Amino acid sequence: MAPFCVTIGGDSISRQLPMSQVESAAGVSLVLLPGMDGTGQMFNSFTAALPATIRSVVVTYPPDRPLGYPELEAIAEQAFPAEGWFVVLGESFSGPLAMRIAARGHPRLAGIVLIASFVHNPLPRLGPILRPFVGSWSFGFPPPCWTIRRYLAGADAPDDLIAEFQGAVRTVSPAVMAKRAREVLAVDVRGLLPRIRVPVLLLVAGHDRLVSTKMKDDFRELGDFFKYVCVDAPHLILQRKPESAAEIIEGFLQRIRTGNPANESR
To answer: For residue range 88-99, what is the model confidence (pLDDT) as tens digits?
Structure first.
């Protein structure tokens, strides 16, 4: 099944942005904020699939310091390119962080890309109940293979991807993982949406068992600034469909330049 594109809103995805100063997609850097492991290791297959003309900057979070979204935001900002336009990509856990950055605004921020992400706790009913019980003990061991395949990587995920994910999690303190999980179960940045004035692209995993595809509806308040693409993949979109994701994101960077949301089906 090929991915499809749906544009929410009207005629210009780059309204109010002086994109005439961006000569091509190659003139925009892509700042990558990782999923809950925070290592950045899981981006390897995706960055390899990006065209050489797109500069990528991979942000990593401290593996031994339990930090919340505000502290991680400060770390992410330190990785912004010193010059030129840039787009921030937030994978899953880092989606709310990317939205916080967009709401604060930055003179050279050209857009936001979210991967299988959300703007509020993806488990609205269970989150408040589970949050007090999430502790270091919850992450004392890497998640078993069957859990990764069921909720993250898909039943047909290759063994090396499972091992890569387990290896990344193994490098992070259980206390840090627990802190990040509690952050997810409490997060709600919907109130920031009216302040966002840059294009936002959301890649939705069509077979996501962790984040409901209905989460995309929370972004409708962005109107013309919002676009989503549904990809035939499990939660780990960038790891299972790196080439498709790279193509979609490259197109998004080009559309930022031209101001054309290109809402045709892909």
So the answer is: 999 999 999 999
